[in-house]
Amino acid sequence: xxxxxxxxxxxxxxxxxxxxxxxxxxxxxxxxxxxxxxxxxxxxxxxxxxxxxxxxxxxxxxxxxxxxxxxxxxxxxxxxxxxxxxxxxxxxxxxxxxxxxxxxxxxxxxxxxxxxxxxxxxxxxxxxxxxxxxxxxxxxxxxxxxxxxxxxxxxxxxxxxxxxxxxxxxxxxxxxxxxxxxxxxxxxxxxxxxxxxxxxxxxxxxxxxxxxxxxxxxxxxxxxxxxxxxxxxxxxxxxxxxxxxxxxxxxxxxxxxxxxxxxxxxxxxxxxxxxxxxxx
Length: 280
Hints:
The protein is α/β, with parallel strands linked by helices. The protein has 9 helices and 8 strands. The protein has one domain (7-11, 20-271): TIM Barrel (Alpha-Beta Barrel), CATH 3.20.20.140. Strands 1-2-3-4-5-6-7-8 form an 8-stranded parallel sheet, sandwiched between helices. Helix 3 (102-114) runs parallel beside helix 4. The longest helix is centred in the C-terminal third of the chain and has 22 residues, at 254-275.
């Protein structure tokens, strides 16, 4: 049996057609080499090909804004749209929205998702996600089965102003119990966060942006079930390789590994991707 060429498979002999699909739910253009969105996307594709990553979900532009104005939101999303045009089928976009500007955010959702190529929503630190201003955004996204990725963190030294915690996301999920929500970064302090979201069935966690600490993936699978765990990298702030290491090195069944690396996302996005003419 041949040994696969891509990095994560060097110690795992597999036939080519047995390699799992790898979809990364959390990827950015910032911290990636290049002067333009097109150059940065080309570099990301090089990294993806090296590691066997099939698809990534992009959000935010090349410079991070914690509370962007409507004009800046449009600039962020336009950068992502430019990057997407260079690689149809390899990268998909999450529209970056700011609940401090609800009316504009709804129009931006329509521009980028309803009438454009994007397939989800990215919410960061402009407003805590338990705020009622998020409700119209969640409802609009739900009409198209667009995914919603919410940055969350529990920090020992205290969160940023308006930075959401898993507790906030549980509150939001309770108001929208039929809408799938994604808890970004596994809440940062993952041992607490996994327990916080455990009983809220419409919340999945994604694994991006922390060090590849032993035990994270195993606990998530044990407490939530593999169907509620998603692979994410937070590239280019983090490397694809270090984040894949969490899943590839986890002591979990191979069936669970395949769900986490891609099958869960394929299921979650099947409706909107098919509606936009993509092969799932």
